[in-house]
Design brief:
Length: 328
């Protein structure tokens, strides 16, 4: 018997990430090749954006995806999020060359108050929310705080692009296959302060740290290059990453919904005090997923270098959080 369709809301649906995301959701890459979906698409109530959204929907129609059980265009989050099971909050301004993501807070922060409130009012009580719009961690924090009737743990921020970027760099450095890397994680904020930690990582059972054995490369080449990858893409493309961001959003939601089979992935989630991170700070942690739930990998040893990196990214997040106190 075929499965009942689930409702997937996507904001910023006519934007560049939206264009790289929707076709993959509709083809079953996010929730499985046996899971029909109804897309509930939100764009700003502006003629040009709504027209563009209409065009994207025409293209979705032209794909004749067997799993696409329905599709709706919205200009109000109160209708877009009605009964939604999954919400991918992408819609917001991207940064341009020379900007830091935190600078977007003043422009984008308020979007997430309204959308958190709308999710609180009309979404499924089990809705799984992924915030992609930058600065993603603090926007997710705002949305979570604006939705007191929903489970805080169901609000997450995207660090998966960073996780994937770190994996690719390590694969290049070691000359091994990216698919063979296990137990990698990224701590903290989706910003240049985040800390990609390969101390526990293995490739075919061998320690990545031992394979690389070069703390100077870690501190002075790997981490800075990794931290500034988003800016490097903006510099090269003139636009912020889109296909790789959409790919990471698919990875994040797929793993959360369908499980990771014991593999570690990174998710930005509200802390429950793990590793000394204060409650509710939306922080990148290593997790595994099973039965639609994520579980933090606990008990990892945090050495002095890692502690300093984690403290730095935490400080940035708590500062951002303090800066949006008026929005939550
Ligand atoms: N977390 C990450 O790893 C990551 C990676 C890449 C991009 N991003 C962020 O994702 C966001 C979107 O990027 P993009 O390249 O798709 O931008 P874009 O400008 O191409 O598209 C954004 C779309 O959002 C719409 N929008 C704006 N406000 C909205 C609202 N309140 N409700 C609904 N829709 C709204 C706009 O009309 C536009 O169509 C940016 O903030 C960008 O910085 C995050
Ligand atoms: O860097 C940006 O502004 C876009 C995105 O967050 C990225 O990391 O590519």
């Amino acid at each position: 018997m075929s499965k009942k369709p689930v409702r997937v809301a996507v904001t910023g649906a006519a934007g560049q990430i939206g264009y790289a995301l929707l076709f993959r959701i509709a083809s079953g890459e996010m929730l499985g090749k046996d899971q029909p979906v109804i897309l509930q698409l939100l764009e700003v109530p502006v003629e040009k954006a709504q027209q563009a959204l209409k065009g994207v929907m025409m293209e979705l129609e032209d794909c004749a995806f067997p799993l696409l059980a329905g599709m709706e265009a919205h200009s109000d989050p109160m209708t877009a999020f009605k009964d939604t099971d999954y919400a991918l909050l992408v819609g917001s301004r991207p940064r341009g060359p020379g900007m830091e993501r935190a600078e977007l807070l003043a422009i984008n922060g308020a979007i997430f108050t309204a959308q958190g409130q709308a999710l609180n009012a009309v979404a499924s009580r089990d809705v799984k929310v992924l915030v992609v719009g930058n600065p993603a961690n603090t926007n997710a924090y705002i949305a979570m705080k604006s939705a007191p009737d929903l489970k805080p743990g169901n609000f997450t921020a995207m660090l998966r692009l960073d996780h994937n970027r770190a994996a690719s760099q390590i694969a290049a450095k070691t000359g091994k296959a990216v698919a063979d890397i296990e137990q990698l994680c990224v701590w903290g904020n989706h910003s240049p302060t985040m800390y990609a930690d390969y101390r526990f990582a293995t490739i075919n059972g061998e320690s990545v740290k031992d394979m690389i054995n070069d703390q100077d490369w870690n501190a002075n080449v790997f981490l800075p290059t990794f931290g500034k990858r988003g800016a490097a893409i903006i510099e090269a493309r003139g636009l912020s990453s889109a296909a790789s961001a959409a790919n990471a959003a698919i990875d994040h939601m797929r793993d959360w919904a369908l499980g990771t089979n014991g593999k570690w992935v990174t998710m930005g989630i509200p802390s429950q005090g793990w590793y000394g991170i204060p409650k509710d700070v939306m922080f990148g942690f290593p997790v595994t997923c099973e039965n639609g739930e994520y579980k933090v990998v606990e008990g990892l040893e945090i050495d002095e270098f890692s502690q300093a990196c984690i403290a730095k990214t935490l400080k940035e997040l708590t500062d951002e959080q303090a800066g949006v106190a008026h929005l939550v």
